[in-house]
């Protein structure tokens, strides 16, 4: 299907403030299932925009503002050819059908930190113990194990909209029993890494899954796990879905914090900030 994506972010301030450079990660990332046909990015007030690729190959825009303003609007538009199937079949290498399996040395080296738990964040033992609850025996089906974790997260965690910036640590999400999509994805990723899988964070857009969701689209965070033969497989534990059929990726990274859609600040007092609104509309 051909999708048109409109993403608008608006910041309002009590008085004109000096806007610092903003890092924008809002442009869809092409893959075998996705091709960007058109894209545009503009800001109000007008900004100088430069483009670069980060260490993960994500397309990053940096907007610099020559004038002060009491409002900042960032408008990203894209038209994409979305070919991801609703019910994908994964051609996993037979050597990886059964868990545990061993990545090839080249894969292990290239995955690097993506296959290592976050040892610097407290609570790793808690997450590891939680993840191992899903391992049903000394030898189990690899994809079934990952599906069980993907569908099992919501058994312990309640989804909630969270306006605070940043991502909760996986241990904190387990302790609170709730989190946003990025918190839930981070827990899944860390659990997969504790079990020896290569996993990465993904940010992008979610198509409307059902009439109860109301909005035709939204920004979203999910996970991908690398399995030999099949490559990177999308897991969306917030909706208990597998595959990219309803997902438009924008960026991949080790952690969510590396691929936040908009990062930037202003020079002024804390009370100068009034509000922020995000609106995403997607249509065929």
From TrEMBL:
InterPro entries listed in its UniProt record: Bac_transglu_N, Papain-like_cys_pep_sf, Transglutaminase-like
Domain Transglutaminase-like: 173-239
Organism this protein belongs to: Novosphingobium barchaimii LL02
Protein name in UniProt: Transglutaminase
Entries under SUPFAM superfamilies matching the protein: Cysteine proteinases (SSF54001)
Pfam assignment, any one: Transglut_core
SMART domains in the record: TGc
